[in-house]
Design brief:
Number of helices: 5
Biased composition (Basic and acidic residues): 197-206
Mean pLDDT: 82
Transmembrane segments: 32-56
Distance between the termini: 149 Å
Strand content: under 5%
Radius of gyration: 43 Å
Region (Disordered): 1-22, 187-206
Keywords: Membrane, Transmembrane, Transmembrane helix
Structural class: mainly alpha
Shape: rod-shaped
Biased composition (Pro residues): 8-18
Largest sheet: none
Length: 206
């Protein structure tokens, strides 16, 4: 029977190599990661804050510009109304005439005096609305003035027919889609300087 035990003269077996120890991130690595994350958060927060500040500043500048343009428009329209009132004051009021034919002529004379005013409204509107998002002179407001002039022209035509023996003529003031007088909206939305000439034009019988 053979003895399989190692003899003292046999060399000792070499130990198996140890597996390399797994190295962790370490305290320094975690410190760098946290610091980098904090820097990134700060940069993102600063960028967002700057974007908000720029948006607010832009909105403030735009509102300031809008208010300035609107004030300039109202000043121009107020001056146009003053010029219209001065032209009307140089004419004989329709209510001071005798007979329908004379009244029709007086109404048409006032309508002619109003033409430069209507043209000025269009000029002001075109000058200040171009290049802006807002419409500082409402198209409906200037259209309302034209409706008043057109209603007066129809009244003058009716007066001519009455002068020729036709039915009596009556002034029919224009109304909006809600059946409200157009003149009320013109007075409410326009400068105070326009109230006088508007009342004269909307009361051609006086």
């Amino acid at each position: 029977m053979t003895d399989s035990s190692p003899s003292p003269s046999d060399p000792a077996p070499e130990p198996a190599p140890e597996a390399p120890a797994r190295r962790g991130i370490g305290r320094r690595g975690w410190t760098l990661i946290v610091a980098g994350a904090l820097v990134l958060i700060v940069l993102v927060s600063c960028g967002a804050l700057l974007a908000v500040m720029a948006a607010v500043r832009g909105a403030v500048d735009l509102n300031r510009e809008d208010r300035a343009v609107e004030a300039e428009v109202r000043t121009d329209v107020d001056a146009a109304c003053l010029d219209l009132e001065q032209r009307l004051n140089r004419l004989v009021p329709p209510g001071a005439t005798n007979g329908p034919a004379a009244r029709a002529k007086a109404i048409r004379d006032e309508n002619v005096a109003a033409r430069p005013f209507l043209l000025e409204l269009e000029r002001v509107r075109a000058a200040h609305s171009a290049g802006h998002a807002g419409d500082y002179l409402d198209q409906e407001w200037s259209d309302g003035w034209r409706q008043v002039i057109e209603a007066r022209a129809s009244y003058a035509d009716a007066l001519d027919r009455a002068a020729g023996g036709g039915d009596p003529a009556f002034y029919l003031p224009p109304r909006d889609e809600d059946a409200d007088p157009v003149a009320d909206r013109l007075i409410a939305d326009g400068p105070d300087g326009c109230d006088g000439p508007l009342r004269r034009l909307t009361e051609p019988s006086l």
